[in-house]
Design a protein that fits this description.
five-stranded antiparallel β-sheet; alpha+beta; single chain
Length: 631
């Protein structure tokens, strides 16, 4: 094969000329792409910018305002509800104190020895003593939680003792009541009652009463009843501190007490929320819809099981919220109007210098990015101009680097074409000598020349590829070993441990030959006995590990450190020594990256192990016999 040097020089010069034209075309294309990526506003763009700003600000703001206002309303509703429930809990606590005080006073009276004696043996006391007993025991029952008390004692014979005047006609009427008969039927009994129709006392006031059986502690005999009453107005005073419609109801949905006196004694069982109230001991319930929507808070008196109910119209609670919302909407509208005016001003101020920047950049494009723009204008515009200047500088450097890389590539191609002349001449000469040896029946010399020709032909590479299957690399090694055995005869033994499934793995051409050459010339050549080389391939965690182990003289620690340091230095630093192992190491790293390469381990008089670490890439054969990589 021959190549005309003049033709090569012409191609080389022509390549440079094409590159110059290509660089000019690339520069123009970059400028065009830049103008497409960074369009600057014309005389109408500021209006479009204004519309975009207003649209993308107002719409999200309105949506955000709605989604924030609604949860805020729910939070305020919950806070107001919590506040109302806390107030209701406080009222419940105060009413419970009244009931507990009534219960405590009733216990003191029912356990008083004089009262027990009076009910057990009325004839034992004179009228004066009975009067004194009523004054000392009954009339002295005082509490700071209520003002009026109504205390009445009755024995099993129907005799009455009371702190208030009772009409005699009421005796027989009360005695016939089912609750009266039930209380005297036996056992310690306790009953809370509300009197709003059958008034026991002459003043005819609604009274909340505690009725309990008085029993002789010695004999456990029922002696009579104690009716301990408190005026309803004492409960009303506490309920009136709550907002809205408030009332105390018994277990029959009858209003026991309320700030609205007209409701006392009425039934609220028809209210839609009553069923929900009796399901729980306390809580809040939203009843009704529209204008009839109400917030119902309720709590339970543990002493009686009665309910305190507070009903507040929904609009009344949230009137202030609705007013604040209207004010907020008005403020937002004012802010939007001011923002629109400010935006118009800013948009106009920005569009004017941008037009000037556009003209300047277009003039810079015509000068092939060799002119720098003066940094002026507002901060945003000056930042943009500075960024453009940096971009233009980077484009100039990039074009310069492309020229240099193309020049280097052409030089390397020229040298490669020249380097192919001598190997092809030598290969053709070897083939002629080989066939002359075969003709003269010198088969040993012919085989040597055939093996050498195969190796030389592989080094030239007809397809130009530096990546081959492992089985092809092993074929080259076998030819090389056959040549070495002519010198070392039976002293050299090579063993292979390569699984069949790894034979199609991708390797770099002639990566094993330099390693074997070092093993023979620097290791096995210096030992007296049998030299052994083991070539092994294995796949570990997605990597192909090729190891070459020999039983040569090995290396000292200092020599091994020098070899290791030589592999770890940069490629340019060891350029003069890039032969053998270093050459293989650099080629692997250039092909696959710094995570791959050559590793060396050695021991004096024990041998050396060289490992080649490559990615495990399988190559599949095609129909025409060529091969392609399959990850």
């Amino acid at each position: 094969m021959s190549v005309h040097p003049g033709r090569i020089d012409y191609d080389k010069r022509n390549g440079k000329s094409n590159e110059a034209e290509s660089a000019t075309t690339d520069r123009e294309r970059m400028a065009y792409e830049t103008s497409k990526k960074f369009p600057f506003p014309n005389q109408h763009d500021w209006q479009q910018n204004l519309f975009s700003i207003l649209f993308f600000l107002i719409v999200p703001f309105v949506i955000t305002f709605y989604w924030i206002d609604k949860p805020l309303e729910n939070v305020i509703e919950q806070k107001i509800g919590d506040s109302a429930r806390e107030a209701l809990t406080l009222i419940n606590f105060n009413v419970e104190i009244i009931l507990q005080d009534m219960l405590k006073s009733s216990v003191e009276i029912s356990k008083n020895p004089d009262v027990i004696t009076l009910l057990k043996d009325p004839g034992r006391y004179s009228e004066y003593e009975k009067l004194r007993l009523k004054n000392d025991v009954l009339n002295n029952m005082f509490s700071s939680f209520f003002s009026d008390t109504y205390i009445t004692l009755t024995d099993m014979k129907g005799t009455w003792y009371s702190t208030r005047y009772i009409d005699s006609s009421q005796y027989s009427h009360i005695v016939q009541k089912p609750w009266y008969q039930e209380m005297l039927s036996g056992g310690n009994q306790l009953r809370w009652m509300f009197n709003y129709q059958d008034f026991l006392y002459i003043d005819n006031r609604p009274i909340i009463s505690l009725v309990r059986t008085i029993t002789d502690p010695a004999t456990n005999e029922d002696l009579g009843l104690l009716i301990y009453g408190v005026a309803e107005r004492d409960f009303r005073n506490y309920l009136s501190t709550l907002e809205g419609e408030v009332y105390l109801i018994d277990d029959e949905d009858t209003v026991v007490s309320s700030p609205v006196t007209a409701m006392i004694g009425s039934s609220v069982s028809a209210e839609s929320y009553m069923e929900e109230i009796w399901k729980r001991s306390r809580g809040q319930h939203i009843a009704g819809e529209g204008e009839d929507k109400r917030i119902v808070n309720f709590d339970t008196l543990h002493q009686t099981g009665w309910k305190i109910v507070q009903v507040i119209p929904y609009d009344t609670v949230f009137k202030e919220i609705f007013d604040i919302r209207k004010i907020n909407i008005g403020i937002v509208l004012v802010i939007f109007f001011l923002f629109m005016m400010i935006t118009l001003s800013i948009s106009y101020r920005m569009s004017k210098p941008l037009k000037l920047l556009t003209r300047k950049m277009q003039s810079a494009e015509k000068t092939n990015f060799n002119s720098m723009l003066k940094v002026t204008g507002p901060r945003e515009i000056s930042t943009l101009i500075g960024t453009y200047n940096k971009m233009a500088e980077q484009i100039r450097r990039l074009l310069e680097r492309l020229k240099q890389e193309f020049q280097q590539k052409e030089d390397m191609r020229f040298k490669a074409l020249q380097a192919q002349i001598n190997p092809h001449f030598i290969l053709n000469t070897l083939n002629n000598i080989k066939w002359m040896a075969y003709i003269k029946q010198d088969r040993e010399v012919g085989d040597m020349l055939s093996s050498l020709g195969t190796i030389l032909e592989s080094s030239i590479g007809r397809d130009g590829s530096s990546l081959i299957p492992l089985k092809q690399e092993i074929h080259y090694i076998e030819n090389y070993i056959s040549l070495m055995k002519l010198k070392y005869n039976e002293k050299l033994t090579v063993c292979y441990s390569i699984p069949d499934e790894l034979m199609n793995c991708e390797v770099i051409k002639f990566c094993l030959q330099p390693i074997l050459e070092n093993s023979i010339s620097h290791g096995i050549d210096y030992i007296a006995g049998q030299g052994e080389i083991h070539i092994k391939a294995q796949e570990i965690e997605g990597r192909l590990i090729l190891s070459v182990r020999d039983n040569g003289i090995g290396m000292s620690e200092e020599k091994l450190r020098q070899v290791t340091d030589g592999l770890s230095c940069a490629a340019e630093e060891g350029k003069e020594k890039r032969i053998g192992i270093r050459n293989v190491h650099d080629r692997i790293r250039l092909q696959y990256g710094n995570g791959y390469g050559v590793r060396v381990r050695s021991w004096v008089n024990e041998g050396t192990i060289v490992e080649l670490v490559l990615p495990s890439i399988k190559r599949e054969g095609t129909a025409n016999g060529s091969e392609s990589a399959a990850g």
